[in-house]
Amino acid sequence: MAAALALALAAAVLATASLRAGAVWLDVPQSGTKCVSEEIQSNVVVLADYAIMFESHPSSHPTIAVKVTSPYGNMLHHNENATIGQFAFTTAEAGNYLACFWIDSTEKGSGVSVNLDWKIGIATKDWDAIAKKEKIEQLSNMADDCLLCLCREAEMRTVSEKTNARVAWFSILSLGVCIAVSILQLWHLQGYFRKKKLI
């Protein structure tokens, strides 16, 4: 019982660890750097969006610089004079990945607020877009199926109309043959009865 509970707890921890996604607001000072680090395993997809929040600075429009590095110091992303941006990569080694932000414009003011939406692993997939794509594919398949059904219905209608016309002509021909045979029988019987002097 205790082993099953421990196994279930371990599975829950692993599931929540693989579904990490978080958005944070960073207050970047007018001088200096603000960094965020995340410990990530190797071969994990990372996707992040960042943007300056202009509500705190309605009159000025400062820009920021962004630098993302791996645990061994390899630069994965570098952007300057940005107000909005995105970075994405697949981790090559396990460890702390660091994203640093600083103000690089002359309009520093009292600092800026940056919104950072950092997604890791399965959270990087846009499930809404995938669901919409699947629905579109389903609708496309349904439309193709309806078109195929309409084509088959048209073919069946054509075959049915041809068969109906053939049966009608066969019926008329059969009726004509029956009438002709009846007339021939009457003519033959009249001739037979006249020979035998019955009529």
TrEMBL record:
Belongs to the EMP24/GP25L family. It comes from the Eukaryota. The gene is gb09958. The keyword Transmembrane helix applies. It holds the Pfam family EMP24_GP25L. Keywords: Membrane, Signal, Transmembrane, Transmembrane helix. The chain crosses the membrane at residues 167-187. This is GOLD domain-containing protein. GO terms for cellular component: membrane. It is found in: Membrane. The keyword Signal applies. It is a single-pass type I membrane protein. Residues 33-120 form the GOLD domain. It comes from Eleusine coracana subsp. coracana. The lineage of its organism: Eukaryota, Viridiplantae, Streptophyta, Embryophyta, Tracheophyta. Residues 1-23 form the signal peptide.
